[in-house]
Specification:
This is Arrestin-like N-terminal domain-containing protein. This protein is mostly beta strands. The protein is about 0% helix and about 50% strand. It is built from no helices and 14 strands. It is elongated, with a radius of gyration of 26 Å.
Length: about 270
């Protein structure tokens, strides 16, 4: 599926490298340029290398082929995608690939991101090219058809960069110096949108995007302390956007945990 890139999309990552190689024909009539024939299978490999273990998590891994038309007339510019196909190696409803390790805290179907293994993983590619595809055509004055191939790996890090669908865990120490037990913990995920205005001032908008209550096993008794871990999932369409000199928008994620006390009513005898 061809789609606009997410705001945090990057073309490189310090811990991930990708090579995308396709077996090519060479046609003398085409000046010995790489040639792909319609009606045949496009064969190749996607090679993914991760230089660290457990520092980042990987989500969807796929390759995508897109046929795009760009035409220009005196009155208008026409841009259209006339064909697209993709091959996913990891993602929703798919098993965890060899590039990742199973998350002990979740099943393969409940987590979008999985801890990356250190090393090289090779994925075989085989995609059919329809016979109806037009040939590559380039013309600087009027129009052109372009067949594009690209690879995509969704990455999230464990240092707090929030990406939609990623599983997260926070730990906290609760010291209860009262004579009442605590109530069940409530975790709230807040998305803060910060817009830099023309006069340099910033406007902030806070939205509660997720709240979750936890079981009685997270209660701390009177005059005691406990160390607790809270698991949660960043909701869909919630993500951070880093500050940039080119844009006026920044988006942060905050986690708030509420700890209440269970007060008992005093009985007068």
């Amino acid at each position: 599926m061809s789609r606009p890139e997410l705001p945090h999309t990057i073309t490189s990552h310090p811990f991930i490298s990708i090579s995308f190689d396709l077996a090519q024909h060479h046609d003398v009539a085409q000046g010995d340029l790489p040639t792909f024939h319609t009606g045949e299978d496009l064969v190749g490999v996607l090679q993914l290398e991760c230089t660290v273990a457990h520092t980042i998590s990987l989500g969807r891994i796929e390759v995508e082929l897109v046929g795009r038309e760009h035409a220009t007339t005196q009155q208008e510019v026409i841009q259209k995608i006339f064909w697209q196909t993709s091959l996913a190696f990891q993602g929703p409803s798919l098993p965890i690939s060899n590039a990742c390790e199973a998350d002990s805290g979740s099943s393969t179907s409940s987590s979008t991101y999985h801890p990356a293994r250190k090393g090289i993983t090779t994925f075989p590619i085989r995609l059919s090219l329809p016979t109806s595809l037009p040939p590559l055509f380039l013309h600087s004055d009027c129009s052109h058809f372009i067949h594009l191939a690209r690879s995509c790996v969704e990455v999230t890090s464990t240092n707090g960069w929030a990406v939609e669908g990623s599983r997260s865990r926070i730990g906290l120490r609760v010291i209860n110096q009262t004579r009442s037990a605590t109530l069940s913990l409530v975790l709230t995920v807040i998305q803060r949108i910060i817009i830099r205005q023309d006069d340099g001032r910033e406007a902030e908008m806070d939205n509660i995007v997720h709240d979750q209550s936890y079981s009685d096993s997270h209660i701390t008794s009177a005059f005691s302390e406990s160390v607790l871990y809270l698991d949660f999932t960043i909701p869909k369409d919630v993500r951070t956007v880093s500050a940039s000199a080119q844009t006026s928008l920044r988006v942060d994620i905050f986690i708030q945990v509420d700890v209440g006390l269970a007060h008992e009513e005093e009985k007068i005898l």
